[in-house]
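Field log, afternoon session.

UNIT: design team B
ACTIVITY: writing a sequence onto a fixed backbone
BACKBONE:
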């Protein structure tokens, strides 16, 4: 397992907690091309991942004004990224305009969390600010020197409005562009059959994974929560948990560190406590 999956906790942490997830069947709802870190982390901890990709991510070709903003990058004080996908698709637009990641050197760059920061650093882009809490509000409230500044915000269609609203409230001019969208993935009949046979947990890493999971299982005539006992719902953070609650689910696990390693740790802790409770009953 790559060292970064445990975020500095070390291989001994994984081995010492392996038995808590041993043999547990855990559904992963992330897109196929972004599921590796979670599935490999689960496997290292002894779990059996069931991959049901509920969404796929695609670029938005028509984003009026974006090309002009890209050609005026030097005019921006900050470029703010809220996801790995935002980094990916924005840099693709840079390349299409004949530019590269090096052209971000004249701007300060902010990232919502460590995964986004790592994606930027992998492209040799200096990250000047990472939100202390990996949500839009923390990013907007913590970003330094924004009064009177110009901010470029490339992100997902339908993203929550709090980030640009807070930045504007602090006196920044925000140019926001939707550069990609999450759409429903084609259902995997094999994964649906495994879920119908019974799973221990279903993980969600974004509100869109919740929304499309519910649509996919509903269209298949499947209610995994009718099982006895029902699978637990595990969410990567409070915003995803709120989306789960809005869909009628009851999250049993909400990671305190809104990252894949944080989700793995929270899931392990839950099942460790469940095991202790069962042994003492």
């Amino acid at each position: 397992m790559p060292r970064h999956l445990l975020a500095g906790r070390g291989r001994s942490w994984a081995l010492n907690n392996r038995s808590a997830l041993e043999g547990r069947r855990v559904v992963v709802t992330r897109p196929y091309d972004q599921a590796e870190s979670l599935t490999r982390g689960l496997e290292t901890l002894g779990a059996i991942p069931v991959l049901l990709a509920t969404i796929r991510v695609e670029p938005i070709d028509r984003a009026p004004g974006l090309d002009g903003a890209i050609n005026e990058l030097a005019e921006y004080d900050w470029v703010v990224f809220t996801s790995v996908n935002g980094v990916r698709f924005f840099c693709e637009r840079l390349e299409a305009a004949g530019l590269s990641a090096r052209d971000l050197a004249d701007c300060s760059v902010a990232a919502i969390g460590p995964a986004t920061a790592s994606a930027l650093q992998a492209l040799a882009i200096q990250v000047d600010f990472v939100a202390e809490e990996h949500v839009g509000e923390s990013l907007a409230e913590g970003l330094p020197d924004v009064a009177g500044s110009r901010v470029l915000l490339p992100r997902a269609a339908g993203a929550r409005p709090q980030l640009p609203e807070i930045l504007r409230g602090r006196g920044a001019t925000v140019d926001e562009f939707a550069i990609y969208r999450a759409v429903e993935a084609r259902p995997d009949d094999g994964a649906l059959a495994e879920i119908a046979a019974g799973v221990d947990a279903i993980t969600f890493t974004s509100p869109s994974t919740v929304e499309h999971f519910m649509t996919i299982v509903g269209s298949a005539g499947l209610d995994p929560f009718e099982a006895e006992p029902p699978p637990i719902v595990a969410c990567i953070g409070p915003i995803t948990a709120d989306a789960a609650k809005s869909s009628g689910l009851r999250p049993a696990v909400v990671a305190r560190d809104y990252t894949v390693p944080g989700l793995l740790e929270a899931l392990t802790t839950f099942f460790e406590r469940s095991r202790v409770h069962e042994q003492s009953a």
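LOG NOTE: The domain at 58-183 is CATH 3.40.50.10090 (Rossmann fold).
NEXT ACTIVITY: expression trials, pending approval
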